[in-house]
Amino acid sequence: MKIDLPKDVKFIIDKLQSAGYEAYAVGGCVRDSILGREPDDWDITTSADPYEVKKLFRPTIDTGLQHGTVTVLRNHVGYEVTTYRVDGAYEDGRHPKEVTFTRNLKEDLLRRDFTINAMAYNDEEGLIDEYGGLSDIENKIIRCVGDPLERFTEDALRMMRAVRFAAQLGYEIEPETRAAITKLNTRLRMISAERIQVELCKLILSPNPAHLRVAYELGITSVVLPEFDACMKQEQNHIHHCYSVGEHILHSMENIEADRVLRYTMLFHDMAKPACVTVDEEGHNHFHGHDVKSAEMAHGIMKRLKFDNDTLKQVELLIRNHDLKIEERPKTVRRAMNKLGSGMLPKLLKVKYADVMAQSDYLREEKLRSLDNLKIIYDNIVAEGQCVTIADLAVDGKDMIKLGVKPGPEIGRILGRLLDAVIDDPALNKKDTLTKIARELI
Q: Quick check: pTM over 0.70?
């Protein structure tokens, strides 16, 4: 098998070999090259120790000398060069307490997580595949290198990585690896919220976000996202729905683009339904107030998982309004644009579309037609530059002061009244017209 190594990667490997050391591209870059994907970065493994690497290259960065890693800079790009190593005991469920350098490539590959990530390559020897990674790629399987219980005991985050790789690649997790995750999933409590969030994001933004179902089946979500487990167990029993709350969430994520805000909105949009359920006399379930409650739950969960504030605020806003009724009239659409803020209505329409596509087919055509009409109205409002915020008004606070209004809250009150009038009738957004209305208000 031939892999086209980037020029700088080949230079580093060749220089190490010329100095009498072994060197290979290793891990994800080899996997992605086999899959025909462009690697995000290229890692190199070598029999040279970190100080031997530093003698051969300039400049370098001491990325992690105690773990054998030196970053070699070539044309303003960093390439991590790591010495073959054997990991010591993992006392925190994530990092080895110490590492021992080795001259044996096979021992180094054995410490890696999955077979598809435990292959090495150089042009001289070709593909080094000691643990069946190529076969598992061909069979679309995620399998631990060696004993999965050992691999997950060493690093508990690997359990989430298994599901994440399965989602990104469309693979299945083989039975022994699944069994080990089911047995050891509580060890994820040892992992920091930031690390959990990173892996969850990669899963949710993958081509197969519904693989979160696998995380549920393996008991992972019971540890990192227990609120989702309650949704998987909550039936809806309503004419508008054909799935449980959890399955509805999974299908809705599949029906929206891989955008961080949008995917997380769908993940959390119905999260409070189990807490809001009521049953009427006919046995139908209702979830009154779940939109507001779900927004509150999303806020709490995202804080717990250390999300950035911008993502949190957008997700919370969209969830709070995901059931907002918007009439197919320009005036109503302008009011929705004003309520949601700049650029958020198109996102809300995408959320509503994904929601509808994950429901039963009852009235689906009518619901989708309404969303199409709302998008057309929105596009016309934007194209015509119609006023939807105070900043869009033809007058401002300085104009109010000229009319004799004292600086302070009264200016905001008057501008708000003017905006109400202009949202109802965009033709009023002219300076002389608004000045006349303002005088009457004063």
A: yes
